[in-house]
Amino acid sequence: MKNCTLCGKEFDENAARSLYAEAGEWLAGEVWRDAGELCQICLENRARLVMMYHHEYNS
């Protein structure tokens, strides 16, 4: 178990992920360089926000 660096909640890094969480994990690795440090909820929220506001990643 790890603690999320954004919200501080404990999470299982090996738990199944939603499609939004997978997109968030890609962003975490390629853009923000914090892969493996965020819980599924924060990954999902990051992916949704990027989809809405950072159109350069929506290709």
Mind explaining what this structure looks like?
- Helix content is about 45%, strand content about 5%.
- The chain contains two helices and two strands.
- The protein is elongated and about 35 Å long.
- The chain has about 60 residues and is mainly alpha-helical.
- Strands 1-2 form a two-stranded antiparallel ribbon.
- It has helices at about 20-30, 40-55, and strands at about 1-5, 10.
- The protein starts with a strand and ends in a 6-residue tail after the last helix.
Layout of helices and strands:
Blueprint: E1 2-3, E2 10-11, H1 19-32, H2 40-53
Antiparallel strand pairs: 1-2
Helix pairs in contact: 1-2
